[in-house]
Amino acid sequence: MLEFGDIQHILLTRAPALTGRYEFLSFRNPAGGRAWLTAIREKVHSAKSMRESVEKDKRWITVAFTCNGLRALGVNETTLATFPEEFREGMAERSAVLGDTGANDPAHWVDKTASPDLHAIAILFARDIAERGRCVIEHGRLLAECQGVEVLSSLDLEATPPFDYAHDHFGYRDRLSQPVIEGSGDEPTPGSGAPLKAGEFILGYPDETGSGSALPQPEILSRNGSFMAYRRLEEHVGRFRDFLRENGRTPGEQELLAAKFMGRWRSGAPLTLAPDKDDPALGADSQRNNNFNYKHDDPQGYAVPLGSHMRRMNPRDTAVNMNRRRMIRRGATYGPHLPEGTPDDGKERGIAAFVICASLIRQFEFAQNVWVNDRNFHELGNERDPIIGTQDGTLEFKIPKRPIRRKITGLPAFTTVRGGAYFFLPGLKALRWLAAQGKPS
Amino acid sequence: MSKASDQRDWTKPAAMAIPKGGFFPDKVEKGRYGPIFPRTPACYGFSILAKIIPGREEVFYEYARNIEKTITAQPDALAVLKLHYLRWVLFPIKGDTYFMYQGIFDTDFDKYTEDAVALFGATGITTVFENLEGFPKDWKTNAPAFVKFVREHQCPSFLEYAEYPFTSAEEIKKALRVKAALSDMLDQMQ
What we know:
The structure holds 2 protein chains of 2 kinds. Chain A is α+β, with helices and mostly antiparallel strands. Chain A is built from 15 helices and 10 strands. In chain A, helix 2 packs antiparallel against helix 15 (428-435). By secondary structure, chain B is α+β, with helices and mostly antiparallel strands. Chain B has one domain (2-188): Alpha-Beta Plaits (2-Layer Sandwich), CATH 3.30.70. Chain B starts with a helix and ends with a helix. Chain A binds chain B through residues 85-86, 96-97, 209, 211-214, 320-321, 324, 361-362, 365-366, 369-370, 374, 376, 379-382, and chain B through 4-6, 29-33, 80, 107, 111-112, 114-115, 118-119, 140-144, 168, 170-171.
């Protein structure tokens, strides 16, 4: 039985928010950090309280900590040593594993998330801009009262129009394939597989092996917690649209090329089920839009290219142990919408997302290292993920086609990593335990 | 095929001398579980040497018969490992029996470590590893401990050679399939 009252809401629920804000914090002294946590933890929803009050609430808050943040709150080295090595090293240190090189190198990140001074994130999702404004002011007041708690950077989130469905700045429909946790009460959509054991995402529960990995100690700190990889990914919308125009003679060809990169039409319709022509009704239909496989439906990639984003991020029945590689995704878009037909204005826009999993090394880092940035994924030889892979203009993208495949060479980078970090997402009891660090027991 | 995908010439046999320790100091690539041993003309590989627990020799021979049966029943059982060859050897040193597990494969071991652990659990491949001194008892749920054992017992090559360098098993199989298909086509045209 999942302890819904102790699990932070972001793990199990998605807030009905159109806006949000992330604030990246540094604790210059432990007492200030604990004072901030003592106050803010009262406002953090558990999955239980979120579900009970979602209709009337207007804002939802999540807090999480880097390893240095736990240390800054007063957690001792013996305890920190029980956390996995990749978390202790942090995302910036793991750049070689993640493929964050060249323009994606942490040295170029813009939000100070690569700094060892990054200690915590406060995530706000708000129903509307007015509520966000109110919360920002309120949080500013709290920060002013907590000595030594500084905002390193912040990022405002905005949904991009049209607002009737979730999509990124490139126009791709989002949130189509999410794993479902056993016991969460959610039902997987057709094709999404059976619900997965909670231990794949939440610490302290059996995982798909039937047991679970060793937990950070003490148990009160780790139970009902999870790990979270943050990625701020700029989307170069002008470059993406230019590329489609330069490589497709007609609007139809351009749409097909966009679909081949993703594996789905921008409407969300998968190429496996709609290989030649977009089918927006299919794209919007959650009972049909995820119901396919590759091994028998599309082994050569004639519909969904072997190197496409969707096929890399979830190879489905063409990879083994898929249940050990799944991840929960949360987040939102940021930056101004760039209307179609408008020249790029040079402003940063993109996706600022969280990947939530029980093991960063086994789930998130595997996906980055093997699926996204392995040039030889599926024997492709010289490719990386065309949407989120590290691209330097020297790689290609092959589109299987009868009689002869199409090969695009010199693929540009459509996205650039602008920030990132590894966080530990404690349960609510653990937040209380952390806030009490340093007090005599 | 290899030439096209790797910009390497599979038609020219190649040898590579490898520095002591198994890494080229200026080209060490960081993997999820530590530094990655370099790819050579003979692909990736490992040679794991460990002392067996005394008196367990017969387990190894029984294990060999089991693996043969497993592969006969399920020929793609080891597909995830992207192998060319595996060799299992027992040999004596000063009255003790040592075991060598040598593999040649197309992907660095780091990438599919957890898949390998899961596979070993499912096929019983590591029943033999459990008869090695120092093998972690919790290997099924502790991939880092498994990796640590493998790394500690890995004896890297100091020289590797390939008659057809940098060619993957999948490319070889594709070439053989094309040859078979061409042969079939020619038969149909008689």
